Amino acid sequence: MNKQFSLINLIFASLLLLSCDDTKSAAELVPESxxxxxxxxxxxxxxxxxxxxxxxxxxxxTIDDMVITWSSDNESIAIVDQKGLLTGxxxxxxxxxxxxGNVQSSIEITVSAIRRRILSELFTSST
Length: 127
What we know:
This protein is an alpha+beta fold. It contains 2 helices and 10 strands. The mean pLDDT is 84.
């Protein structure tokens, strides 16, 4: 009887271990970095551009269910709403920030009325 009871417990414990899932929920994952795309942007005043952010853990797992706080370093040049929609306001350069807790990432935004292609070529040739 004891052997039968031990065997049942062993089978139950084995099944319990096999059913364990190593996948963590978003609440258990800790953000390590934020990747914003596209990278540096050149837009015209009143032009809009959708930004996207990918949240990564230290082992490069993507976290999908965390809320990002978007902000502009200078809202007279460009603004960004809480869904990542960027709008150029006036000519100049500023940074757009994506933040989750103490993890932050930024990209440079240039707002210019001159043709984007010329400005893009200037940036490319100067680096």
